Amino acid sequence: MEADQSEGTKLPITAPAVDPDLLHELVDHLRKSQEALREEWVRRITEAKLLSVMTPDEIFSEVTAVYDNYVTALETGSIETLQEYARDLSERIIPRGVETDEVLGIVLLLRDVLARSLFVNYQRDPDLLHRILDSYEPAANSIAVTVGVSFVDQRERIIREQQEAIRELSTPVLQVRERLLILPIIGVLDAARARQLTEQLLAAIRDNRARVVVIDVTGVATIDLTVANHLVQAVEASRLMGASAILTGLSSGIAQTLVDLGVDLGTMQTVGDLQGGLEEAERMLGTSVPGVDETSWRSFQ
Amino acid sequence: MSVAILHQGEYVIASIQSDLSDREVVALRDDLTRRVGDHRARGLIVDVAAMDVIDSFVARALRSIAETALMRGAETVIVGIQPDVAIAMVQFRLNLEPLRAALDLDDAVRTLDRLVKRGPPDAR
């Protein structure tokens, strides 16, 4: 047993077999003194200025719940409930700006508070204290890891969702008038986005029966060969579907880059700005669609 | 062969109902150019909305349909290329030049009206 302990203290994570009686004893102790321990924990959290975005009442209610879950997890060895609670908690506190270090900080604080209370309680019997700690350490470590990982997982999930939302939002295809669409492109175009953009554009052409599409790249800061080729492909695909495309808003820098790269935009119609592009589009629609109200596009010119 | 061929005034409309084999594509080409002459058509509309694939062979056949039809006095418009097909064609660098594409039959008829009216005065 003695040898076991020295091993155990060196490598706290590789636990010696947990003695159920000891664990029971431990959990009993934590339940009995829960009021004092919780208060101590809250005091330490406030002292360390963690969770500063939450009110003391909120901290107290979360602390109570975490404490109960923590002790239950220690008792049963099952971290599932705790995991679920941690995920739920993360979902609530992430939007309020709670950082990863704060979450890890409070869990480690609880671990510390409980360990100290064990020291105090069992200091008269070092042998028992050692064995209790042997049971406590691995469980506490796995709990800390669980909470930390849940928090980070939740965060990453939110980031993924937001990335998706940005992708969805960033390529709207707008109908300006009957059979005329504009596609304002803003931000960075990568291969995936360019492909998605082409697909959305073609679907919109089909759904709106568009004849003319104005693609505005005023909001695109830089353009490279791949992106330029994607644009050319989008324009050619539109033409195959029976719509003409006008490219507008090429800045002088981008125009020079395209010339330097030797991109052939000869097949594309380009106009300086969106206004010019819309005027050109109106002209094309006006001459090619007999049904269009002549005055409506004349007044635009 | 699952191609419906209709006559509408001066136009011949060929509506392809399914993907075609290479042999059928060739047969369609011969049939259409013959009809353009027989009916003295001024325009030819090929509807490919039902085709899931337009490969280089089909693209070339469509081009040659258009070229032969033009020699016999008819302009050709392709209708109904699906978005997926358009993307694939662009990626494989298949183009239908000098063919015109239109979104739907309405558009195709308008395009032809314009082309035919603009053309040299009719000998008839």
The assembly state of the depicted protein chains is heterodimer
Largest interface: A-B, 22 and 23 residues
- Number of helices in the DSSP assignment of chain A: 12
User: Main β-sheet of chain A, in a few words?
Assistant: 5 strands, mixed
The class by helix and strand makeup of chain A works out as: alpha/beta
Q: Find the count of extended strands of chain A (DSSP E, 2+ residues).
A: 5
**CA gyration radius of chain B, whole angstroms:** 14 Å
Overall form of chain A: rod-shaped
Helix/strand/pairing category of chain B: alpha/beta
* Average pLDDT for all residues of chain B: 85
Largest sheet composition of chain B: 5 strands, mixed
Q: Can you walk me through this structure?
A:
The complex is a heterodimer of chains A (301) and B (124). Chain A is α/β, with parallel strands linked by helices and 301 residues long. Helix content of chain A is 67%, strand content 9%. Chain A contains 12 helices and 5 strands. The longest helix of chain A is centred in the middle third of the chain and has 44 residues, at 126-169. Chain B is of the alpha/beta class. In chain B, helix 1 (22-38) packs parallel to helix 2. Chain B starts with a strand and ends in a 6-residue tail after the last helix. The model of chain B has no long low-confidence stretch (mean pLDDT 85). At the A-B interface, helix 8 and helix 9 of A face helix 3, strand 5 and helix 4 of B.
